[in-house]
Amino acid sequence: MNKSLIIVLIVVVSLVNSTLFAQNDSITKADIPIEDYKFSIGKSIFNKKLWSQPYRYENKALKTLSVQINIARQHRKAEELDFNLFALTDDTKNWRIRPVAIYYYKADRKVYLKSKPDNRNYNDFEKYKLEGYEDFEAKTFKTNMLGIKKKKKVSPTVQSLNKMKLSNSKITYYLDFPVRPTFDYGKIYFKDKPIGFTGVKK
Question: Can you list the pairs that 142-149 forms with residues at least 24 positions away whose Cβ atoms lie under 8 Å?
């Protein structure tokens, strides 16, 4: 075979292989999902000041544990963050607990975000069950600062927290979880992945 022809064939084969490798590499990178957010758990507060929360529980025995969630957005195209997908575990009762409210601080004052009654036909919280745990969703009703129900004819409901598109790359929110008075500690989950521990100082 002519040496020139052999050289041409070698060059063509090399180009084809390098092109296929580049295509496979780009496809692989495109298929790797990018995490939208990263979370870390800060302090937790066992709320003893009922006047500071704009709701009460239907079950009067329940207390509130506020958990600090530090959020870092990983890229500008991050999707809305669904706060209903956070959960707290109570390992004594084997409960997976849904948050009832969300707030942030502004000039040392709590600012609660709006929520609405959950659509029981499409419950985001139920998508990510934990094996060995029972979902626990507390019903609440909205109150004024004196703890009086705002609308007497409205029945207590499970509240759905709003999904949010976060504009800041880093932000902190606090989630309120309904807990037993003797609650000690548990894990915080996002979807079905643990993201940290929290507890009550005795």
Answer: 142/54, 142/55, 143/54, 143/55, 143/56, 144/54, 145/51, 146/51, 147/50, 147/51, 147/56, 149/56
pLDDT of residue 18: 44
Helices and strands counted in the chain (H then E): 1, 16
In angstroms, rounded to a whole number, what is the distance separating the alpha carbons of residues 195 and 38? Answer: 9
Among 161, 138, 116, residue whose Cα is nearest residue 58:
138
Per-residue confidence at 200, pLDDT binned at 50, 70, 90?
Answer: confident
29 alpha-carbon distance from chain centroid: 26
Average pLDDT, rounded, for the chain = 83
Q: Helix or strand or coil: residue 10?
A: helix
Domain boundaries in the chain?
1-32, 37-199
**Spatial distance between the Cα atoms of 167 and 57, rounded to a whole number of angstroms:** 32
Whether pLDDT at 126 is above 60: yes
Using the structure block, give the residue that is written with the tokens 């890229």. Answer: 75
For residue 70, how many other CB atoms are within 10 A of its CB?
Answer: 14
Residues 6+ apart with CB under 8 A from 9: none
Tokens of 85: 């997908």
The pTM of the full predicted model, rounded to 2 decimals, is 0.80
